[in-house]
Amino acid sequence: MKMKIMNVCGMAILAIGIWACSGQKKGTANVEVATDSVEVAADADAISVQADSTGYIVRVGEMAPDFTITLTDGKQVSLSSLRGKVVMLQFTASWCGVCRKEMPFIEKDIWLKHKNNADFALIGIDRDEPLDKVLAFAKSTGVTYPLGLDPGADIFAKYALRESGITRNVLVDKEGRIVKLTRLYNEEEFASLVQKINEMLK
After folding, report:
1. Per residue in 35-83, pLDDT tens?
2. Domain containing 167: what range?
3. CA–CA separation, 34 and 150 (whole Å)
4. What is the pTM of this model?
5. Which residues form the signal peptide (predicted)?
6. Distance separating the N- and C-terminal Cα atoms of the chain
C-alpha cells in the first residue's frame, strides 16, 4: 500500500514539473504528456510524426527544417540563408520561467563570446507573442541577441510537437544539420552545449 501511494505521489510531482514550461500559456489546464507518436493532419492527409520523450520531432544528424522569421527590428531571415554558419536556435516565451532563467546564461556564455564571429548566428524564437511583449521580454531578461516572432508557434511545430514545452535549443552545423538538441535548463547539458559551440567555432 505504501508503495502505491509513493508511486502516485511521484507521478504527481513529475506531472507538475513537466507542466511548468509546457506548451500551454498560463491559465490553461492542459498538461504536457510525453508521447512516442502523434497523428497530425497536413493538407487533409493524416501523417504519423514520431516524437521523442521530450516532444522533439527532429533528430540529431537530420537537416534542420527551413523557415523564415521576422526579427524584432523588422528584418527577415531564413535558416537556409545562414548556411555556412554555426546556428543556435532558442525557442522561448515570456511566460516561461525556465526560459527566463536560461536566457542570461545564453547571453553571457554564448552570445557575448561569439557575437562578433562571422561564422556564428543565434536567434531566439519567441512562441506566439506580439512584438511589444517580445521587446519587453528582451529588456526584462537583459538579452541583446536577436529575437524573432513565431505567430501560432508554426516554426516551433517544425521541430517539436506544437503543444510540447519550451525552453529548447537546437544547434545546427555549417551544412545545416542538427548536431545538438536540449530541453529545459540543466547546468550540465547547457555546459555541454557551450562546449560544443566553442569546438565548432575553433
Report:
1. 333 333 343 333 456 999 999 999 999 999 999 999 999 999 999 999 9
2. 62-201
3. 23
4. 0.79
5. 1-20
6. 57
